[in-house]
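Milestone 3.1: sequence recovery, worked example.
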């Protein structure tokens, strides 16, 4: 196990002075100070995004941060120890976590620690315990990123409204035949299984469901099927990156749409140009009044494009500050009740959480208590939905992102990948 960083060294890595971040109140939030622990990592882009997003929010709010470094983020024992340490150092609540691997270990501690934990980087696990055992797990929330069931539902909506109604009917894609491709992980397999019936109901002819641990072999298998497009489901960043690079280098004329974790934080120096990848934050004014300001200030401070975990964690810190302002206390039970009543315009959309009752009566079976609400209902303004939506963004040759879907947030139109010419 990698040796833990000292707090002084860790804060220096974040680019702030040693000591807790205690900054002035901002935009009318409570004078009550809340201390927030951060489950991030300096060794991964998504983990660093969590740390940076929390830091940026804290610079605007009456918030004290205690950063916790999860290292390579997949060590359950370390995650459990870091969570316990953050609470022992005085954290009233915790935000972060970009990997689901460690959540089962954290579930052993959360009923004992009794502090709100807001997951900001993974759609899996944690909140699935809330409805069944509310008293033990009511402390768990997920902000900004919708769960896997909602993502699969949204994938079906994208397939129907964008692929079928726009690209196929306009003959930009020559037929409705597609293949599902992904890595051999259980996460990819489960998600492809959930997505498959949604794609079929949307009007696509799914003629292959392929998985392979070797990106080159997977691409060869895909080419043999002879489809105009493929829906990707990559949760292994290495395989996803190699697949995108080979697709571009070999000039494979199959349009790619879908999930690829590697492309959430790395555009592979142009190798992924033309790929349409699902993201959970987007730089477009129609998401809400805070969005463009966040992107501007983040890039000024960190000299980098923010990954989605930076935006979702930023929103989670704001949600906690808002909850303290309404509860007028940092006591855990009161914070949980206040978080359950959250309705906040965030960087990624409207931040609010499903209730147990909403989960029980949801006919679509995508509502999970204390999960981020999936924005299905249109509001008629900005933001355009009553929750948050995944963004389907096409990577341009320059590495910038063009939002294609939902149409309310679009910043441009689909173009065939440059190597198709």
């Amino acid at each position: 196990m990698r040796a833990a960083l000292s707090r002084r060294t860790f804060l220096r890595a974040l680019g702030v002075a040693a000591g807790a971040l205690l900054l002035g109140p901002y935009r009318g939030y409570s004078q009550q100070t809340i201390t927030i622990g951060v489950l991030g990592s300096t060794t991964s882009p998504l983990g660093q995004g969590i740390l940076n997003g929390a830091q940026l929010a804290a610079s605007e709010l009456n918030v004290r941060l205690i950063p916790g470094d999860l290292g390579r983020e997949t060590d359950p024992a370390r995650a459990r120890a870091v969570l316990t340490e953050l609470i022992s150092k005085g954290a009233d609540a915790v935000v972060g976590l970009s990997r689901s691997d460690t959540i089962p270990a954290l579930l052993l501690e959360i009923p004992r620690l009794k502090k709100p934990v807001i997951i900001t980087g993974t759609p899996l696990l944690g909140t699935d315990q809330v409805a069944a055992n509310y008293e033990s797990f009511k402390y768990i929330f997920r902000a900004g990123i919708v769960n896997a069931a909602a993502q699969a539902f949204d994938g079906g909506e994208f397939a129907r409204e964008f692929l079928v109604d726009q690209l196929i009917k306009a003959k930009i894609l020559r037929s409705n035949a597609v293949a599902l491709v992904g890595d051999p992980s259980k996460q990819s397999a489960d998600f492809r299984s959930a997505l498959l019936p949604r794609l079929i109901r949307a009007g696509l002819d799914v003629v292959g469901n392929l998985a392979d641990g070797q990106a080159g072999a997977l691409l060869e298998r895909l080419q043999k099927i002879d489809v105009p497009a493929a829906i990707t489901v990559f949760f292994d960043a290495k395989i996803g990156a190699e697949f995108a690079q080979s697709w571009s280098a070999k000039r494979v004329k199959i349009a790619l749409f879908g999930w690829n974790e590697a492309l959430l934080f790395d555009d592979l120096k142009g190798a992924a140009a033309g790929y349409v990848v699902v993201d959970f934050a987007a730089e477009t004014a129609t998401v809400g009044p805070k969005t463009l300001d966040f992107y501007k200030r983040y890039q000024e401070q960190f000299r980098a494009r923010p990954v989605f975990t930076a935006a979702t964690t930023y929103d989670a810190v704001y949600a906690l500050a808002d909850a303290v302002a309404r509860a007028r206390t940092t006591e855990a039970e009161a914070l949980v009740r206040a978080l359950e009543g959250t309705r906040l315009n965030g960087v990624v959309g409207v931040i609010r959480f499903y209730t147990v009752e909403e989960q029980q009566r949801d006919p679509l079976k995508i509502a999970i208590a204390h999960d981020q609400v999936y924005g299905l209902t249109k509001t008629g303004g900005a933001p355009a939905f009553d929750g948050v939506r995944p963004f389907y963004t096409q990577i341009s040759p320059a590495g910038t992102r063009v939002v294609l879907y939902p149409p309310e947030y679009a910043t441009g139109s689909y173009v065939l990948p440059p190597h198709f010419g």
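Residues 1-28 have pLDDT under 50 and may be disordered. The first strand starts at residue 34 and ends at 40.
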